[in-house]
């Protein structure tokens, strides 16, 4: 039997791979006296994905350090956050989370009997808790509540009052769960500092806060439940895992915003203390790394090829996912999954007496629209009105796109700019050059015709998904079938608003960083 870790070893286990700790001195002092009580909460909204293995591996560290760990399924928070979980689905999604989180923990060898599982509504609807919500609301300013939730609560043009309550409830959870510390992502930092400021005003202790870094998704931005291309679902089939990893951003030698490397660092290394890069003998054979820094160095120096790295992660990841897939293959859990996350693309029957001329499944989530970066622009060799562009959309190779922008946009204005690209049209030859996408542009109604490429919000990365508000869920079609005219039906309702925002049926085109717009063509169309 291994000897129990001492305070310093416990401190190392608790804090390794974290980005920030608020209350380090208090943590060390507490570890010298007793075991730490800590909780991690998750709002039961979108389906958990493989990035959830990051907090799971930290929970394993906490248990090794002797901590008492509580996992909170924050069902009420899920509803308060701009109704990300509709009330009628709340119970179903909470049950799904309970089953899938437990399956994840089991797949990495965490003993469930050492954990405490709690639902928010088990105590958040009590008289005492409700009174504390009112007490907190009497001292918190609207400014502080909005600021605290800025990185976590969904930001919309006309925010609901519920989003202002969210940070206060999360602060109160620390007191009602009787913990010493809260663990979460660094995106929760503003809520954590909000809790440290306001809990003492109610006579409650300030807690310790432990923060994980945000792990980049497969497109190079944050891995998100609402961005299908950025994440691998826990129930994805092996062929889907292969397909998504193949498209993942993993530029040779680039270790910044590399979701594949980040997954190795924050999940696979902590679990196994090593990582094996699988290679054919002619490329040097398999190589075992016992320190992540050595692997990162070799990748930066291009000793390790992105293809070998992706293949190796695919093998390791499927070993983690296999027991979860097996558990969710039962009829009961299959039924729960489809009930908790109904497919929005499925057509609903028309009301009696009406003609269903526009099928319900013609929805914007079927379009694979991404942020692209124009790498090069050349005139088409056989057509004076066409450009041939190379555009990076977060895939291993840039796409070739032909667009008729010569008379509207000077070449130097296109070079190196971010654009919005429709990526799942069927490739077609335009005067002998195959075009693999369409640059979406605003167009004026009058003469002379004016055209402006749509602008993603500043700070976006190539490959980031673009959505229509309210349609963030659902997988896009692999390829839009020309005969079905899905794009044409949707495009009929594309427009530019009076404040130059791209819209479909008055719903904004958005990325996780904000709205898609154009420079000046108010009231125009989009093509």
Detailed description of the structure:
The chain is built from 16 helices and 23 strands. The chain folds into 3 domains: 7-212, HUPs (Rossmann fold, 3-Layer(aba) Sandwich), CATH 3.40.50.620; 238-340, Tyrosyl-Transfer RNA Synthetase (Orthogonal Bundle), CATH 1.10.240; 364-526, OB fold (Dihydrolipoamide Acetyltransferase, E2P). The protein has 527 residues and is an alpha+beta fold. The chain is globular. Helix 6 (127-137) packs across helix 8. Strands 9, 10, 11, 12, 15, 18, 19, 20, 21 and 22 form a 10-stranded antiparallel beta sheet that branches. A 6-stranded mixed beta sheet has the order 1-6-5-2-3-4. The N and C termini lie far apart (68 Å).
Q: How many individual helices? A: 16
CATH class category name of the largest domain:
Alpha Beta
Helix content: 25-40%
Total of domains: 3
Backbone structural class: alpha+beta
Oligomer: single chain
End-to-end Cα distance, whole Å, is: 68 Å
The second-level CATH architecture of the largest domain is 3-Layer(aba) Sandwich
Instruction: Point out poorly predicted stretches.
Output: 222-226, 347-360
Total strands: the figure is: 23
Quote the average pLDDT: 87
In the CATH hierarchy, what is the superfamily of the largest domain?
Answer: HUPs
Task: Please give the largest β-sheet.
Answer: 10 strands, antiparallel
């Amino acid at each position: 039997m291994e000897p129990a870790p001492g305070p310093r070893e416990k401190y190392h286990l608790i804090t390794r791979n974290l980005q920030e700790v608020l209350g380090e001195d208090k943590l060390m002092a507490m570890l010298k006296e007793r075991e730490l009580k800590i909780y991690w909460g998750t709002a039961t909204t979108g389906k958990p994905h493989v990035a959830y293995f990051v907090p799971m591996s930290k929970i394993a560290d906490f248990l090794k350090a002797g901590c008492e760990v509580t996992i909170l399924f924050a069902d009420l928070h899920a509803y308060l956050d701009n109704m990300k979980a509709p009330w009628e689905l709340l119970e179903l999604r909470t049950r799904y989370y309970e089953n899938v989180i437990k399956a994840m923990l089991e797949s990495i060898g965490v003993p469930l009997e050492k954990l405490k599982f709690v639902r928010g509504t088990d105590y958040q609807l009590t008289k005492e808790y409700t009174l504390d919500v009112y007490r907190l609301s009497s001292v918190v300013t609207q400014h502080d509540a909005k600021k605290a939730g800025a990185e976590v609560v969904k930001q919309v043009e006309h925010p609901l009052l519920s989003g202002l309550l969210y940070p206060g409830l999360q602060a109160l959870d620390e007191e009602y769960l009787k913990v010493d510390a809260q663990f979460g992502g660094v995106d929760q930092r503003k809520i954590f500092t909000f809790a440290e400021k306001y809990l003492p005003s109610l006579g409650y202790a300030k807690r310790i806060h432990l923060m994980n870094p945000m792990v980049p998704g497969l497109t190079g931005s944050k891995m998100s439940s609402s961005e299908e291309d950025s994440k691998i679902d826990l129930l994805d089939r092996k062929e889907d895992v292969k397909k998504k990893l193949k498209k993942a951003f993993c530029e040779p030698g680039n270790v910044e915003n590399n979701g594949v490397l980040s997954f190795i660092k924050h999940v696979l290394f902590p679990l196994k203390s090593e990582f094996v890069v699988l290679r054919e003998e002619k490329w040097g054979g398999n190589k075992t790394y016992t320190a992540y820094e050595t692997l990162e160095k070799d990748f930066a120096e291009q000793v390790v090829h992105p293809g070998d790295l992706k293949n190796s992660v695919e093998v390791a990841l499927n070993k983690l996912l296999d027991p979860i897939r097996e558990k969710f293959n039962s009829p009961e859990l299959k039924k729960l999954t489809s009930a908790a996350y109904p497919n929005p693309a499925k057509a609903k029957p028309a009301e009696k007496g009406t003609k269903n001329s526009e099928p319900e499944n013609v929805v914007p989530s079927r379009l694979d629209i991404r942020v692209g970066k124009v790498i090069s622009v050349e005139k088409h060799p056989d057509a004076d009105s066409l450009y041939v562009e190379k555009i990076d959309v977060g895939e291993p190779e840039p796409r070739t796109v032909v667009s008729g922008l010569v008379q509207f946009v000077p070449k130097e204005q296109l070079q190196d700019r971010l654009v919005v690209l429709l990526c799942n049209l069927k490739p077609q030859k335009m005067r002998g050059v195959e075009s693999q996408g369409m640059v979406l542009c605003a167009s004026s109604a009058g003469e002379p015709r004016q055209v402006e490429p749509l602008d993603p919000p500043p700070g976006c990365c190539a490959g980031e998904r673009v959505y229509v508000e309210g349609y963030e869920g659902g997988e896009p079609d692999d390829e839009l079938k020309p005969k079905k005219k899905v794009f044409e039906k949707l495009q009929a309702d594309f427009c530019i608003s009076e404040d130059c925002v791209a819209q479909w049926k008055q719903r904004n085109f958005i990325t996780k960083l904000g709205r898609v717009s154009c420079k000046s063509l108010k009231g125009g169309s989009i093509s």
